[in-house]
Amino acid sequence: MDQILKGLYRLGSREFPAFLVVGSHHLVQVDAGPAFMGPGYLQDLPKVLGKGRGPDFLFHTHSHFDHIGSTPFLLRHFPEIKVGGSETFARRLSRTKTGNSIADLNRALVRKSNMDREFIPGDFDYSFLTVKQILKEGDLIDLGGGVSLEVIATPGHTSDSLSFFLPHLEAVLAGDALGIIPGDDSWVAPQFLSSYENYLDSIERIRKRAPKTILLGHHSVVGQGECERFFNAAVADCLAFREMIEQYLKESEMKEEMVVQRIQAAEYHTLRGGKQPEAAFLLNLTAQVHLISKGMKGDRVG
Ligand SMILES: [Fe+2]
């Protein structure tokens, strides 16, 4: 656990953080990483809140397995927590197929970490999760003592993505809406999985709030004085990535699989690799290449 700013804490690890926003009346946790991180969050919570107290709300930036994985586990320990997310998030969670695939991915990571003993079957049951608070663009959640969260709809990474701006700290919790910094250089890996256009638009929507601190969903906190450069890089690296995909697609006569292999060799097995699990990198890259390919084919038809 570490304190990022006054009343804003990071629980768990840098790779899979959960964030805690503390107001005088209410406590909000944002995201609950993969299930195997659950015991770690549980250990960190009393360091901030004292023994036996959990957050009042658990808001989610989006429904990916590594942002919602430990939610049932935390609810077992703190049943009074109210779960929040976008309307699309709620709709997705209600689908059995989505719940099953989230459960499978989380169970696999728990097994890999040899942590089976910490869990009961219900910790992987995402079907019972009810979204008590539907969050939408412009909602302002007052936590008391001048602490609040403003909801920004930021689709593009996924269609259910939200970001949370904290006006009192001029900080934003962005989930994966702005990309991630996977390597040791400052390259921002674009994370547009549902819509390229919405993704770029969402970067601008967050940028307009002029945050001074950006908390990304994995690895990094972009600090005071670095945000402008980060936003520029997030956009420029995204444009360059798209152009590279388009170029490679043309060269390979639109064979998506070949493009994925080529980019994987160039991007992953270099200094930039390392931090993101290769399977996740590959899954995301495949979706991105497909999205751009679909756009190019659409252009051609149009
Ligand atoms: Fe994600």
Describe the structure.
The protein is α/β, with parallel strands linked by helices and 302 residues long. The chain has a domain at 2-135: Metallo-beta-lactamase, Chain A (4-Layer Sandwich), CATH 3.60.15.10. It has helices at residues 38-49, 65-68, 71-77, 87-93, 96-112, 196-208, 227-251, 256-268, 278-301, and strands at residues 2-5, 8-12, 17-22, 27-30, 57-59, 82-85, 133-134, 140-144, 147-153, 162-166, 171-175, 213-216, 221-222. Strand 8 (140-144) and strand 9 form a beta hairpin. The longest helix is centred in the last third of the chain and has 25 residues, at 227-251. The protein binds fe (ii) ion.
- Helical residue percent? 40-55%
Let me know the number of strands: 13
User: Could you give the order of strands across the largest sheet?
Assistant: 1-2-3-4-5-6-7
CATH class of the domain at 2-135: Alpha Beta
Hey, roughly how much beta strand do the residues contain?
15-25%
